[in-house]
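Exercise 7.
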Amino acid sequence: MDKRTRTVSQAHARIDDVEKDVIEIKTEMKIQLKDLYNRMKRMEAIMICITGASLLLLLRMTFLS
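Solution. The predicted structure, written as tokens, is:
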């Protein structure tokens, strides 16, 4: 198709297609960001547990040895 023969309605159709793609990408990014946030919260909880266990181990070694 020659660029000179494109009509305004064809241009609007292509813009609508691009808009649908952008909405799809935004939705996917939102889902991925939510998943990443949940992973960070899980890692935070694991780090807090490890810190607590290390402190308990050090206290036990200090007072019971």
